[in-house]
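For the sake of clarity, the format in which proteins appear in this thesis is described at this point. The record quoted next illustrates the convention:

___
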Amino acid sequence: MNSILYKPKVLFICTGNSCRSQIAEGLLRDKAGDIFDVFSAGSHPSRVHPVAINVMEEWGIDISNHTSDSIDLYLDKGINVVITVCDHANKVCPTFPGDVERLHWSIEDPFSGWDFNNESLDTFRETRTIINNRIDEFVKSRKNL
């Protein structure tokens, strides 16, 4: 088995860093945390949404200790891949120094308020599935790197 001395740093970005980017961070860490260092941030960070925490727990992934961070915290961290998961974040995302790969996944925001209800749970589950499929494609495309 190859030991990885260097792990590329992947940063997921959305506006509030409360839902989509948090789900993406949790999924990529779970699937390929041995290959990538994974982070998430927002252009206007708030807090991790309780429904995002819940739907990730359904899959055995704990994001309850994640924090909602500003993009600015990562500008000088040597990020290798920036993935925006919402259109607004794609528009306002700053230029990261160095040779940074930029990807954009336009994923609808599951946020409809901070309340926890069955309707929001279903919407978050759909978002989780969409992001999971994108993560699988992302990991598969990098298996030979």
In short: The first strand starts at residue 9 and ends at 14. The chain is about 35% helix and 15% strand.
